[in-house]
Amino acid sequence: MAESATSWTVQDDLAERSRFKEYHRKHPREYAACFSNLSRLLDLLRDFGGVKGFQVGFLRSERQGVYRIGQTGVKNARETRLYVYIDESKRVVRVLTIGDKGSQSDDIRRCHAIARKLKGGRG
Fold first, then answer.
1. Bridge-partner residues for 94, per DSSP?
2. Does the reported pTM lie above 0.85?
3. Deepest of 4, 32, 87, 89, by most Cβ within 10 A of its Cβ?
């Protein structure tokens, strides 16, 4: 049986707002596609109760609870990654940052640092 529609929430209080604004301005199609896939992710989390129950092409684990959501369905798109932290115990998806292949290593490093803080220093 599917979970309640209110069982998962998205929080963006840790999001790098200036980066999101700039990325949206420069790459609006890719930006929209990533957030569309975030919506799809929430539906899957509600249906399966967590990330272990499904696999989709747009979602990849970067370890430590950090996942990247890629854009899909955008022709000639810049390869874009929306980074989120998924806290299954609290049923929360925290939006962290957005970037492309060129910023990937730095994005993951910063997201892992945030994940460690969210876990209270563990991990």
1. 11, 85
2. yes
3. 87
